[in-house]
Specification:
single chain, mainly beta, Lipocalin, 1 helix, elongated, Lipoprotein
């Protein structure tokens, strides 16, 4: 039976890590890590909001995305939400964060979000570093009877170092 609950952040992070590892990444973080630290301006590609989001307020984050790296471990903040993840030798990365208390279904709005993608170093003197990939947000809204409605939205993104 599906409860509509979003998995714990630890399980979600494991799933994201396995997905990246299956796409040419490694299950181990980078040893010779790229300098991804910094502030990035986000731009989202177009996409359709699923019909399951009807009645749910869906708002894409405006940014900026701030990243810090300690070894292969990444920590980011996006509109006050802390994201944690891994940078791999291939420059692929994943980040995942969830809102406090949202796993109980008590919070309307963005419950969790993830970014998976790749760091692309700027080329030449005027080159600007970028992140490219997919953003996914899981949203909830309160409804009559106390049963929250949930939906998931995915958009491609590009983030340019500021």
């Amino acid at each position: 039976m599906t409860t509509g609950r979003i998995p714990s952040p630890e399980i979600a992070a494991l799933l994201v890590s396995l997905a990246v590892a299956g796409c040419g990444g490694s299950s181990q973080g980078c040893i010779q890590c790229s300098p991804v630290d910094g502030r990035y301006a986000l731009e989202f590609g177009t996409g359709m909001t699923p019909g399951t989001c009807q009645g749910v307020t869906v708002t894409l984050p405006q940014g900026p995305l701030d990243l810090t790296r300690q070894g292969s471990e990444l920590t980011g903040t996006l509109e006050g939400l802390t994201l944690r993840g891994t940078l791999y030798e291939s420059n692929d990365f994943n980040l995942l964060g969830s809102s406090a208390g949202s796993m109980d279904g008590g919070t309307a709005g963005l419950e969790s979000e993830s970014l998976t993608g790749r760091y692309v170093a700027g080329v030449g003197d005027g080159g600007v570093d970028r992140l490219i990939g997919d953003w996914q947000g899981n949203f909830a809204s309160t409804s009559t009877g106390g049963v929250p409605r949930r939906c998931s939205v995915t958009r491609p993104f590009t983030a340019t170092r500021q």
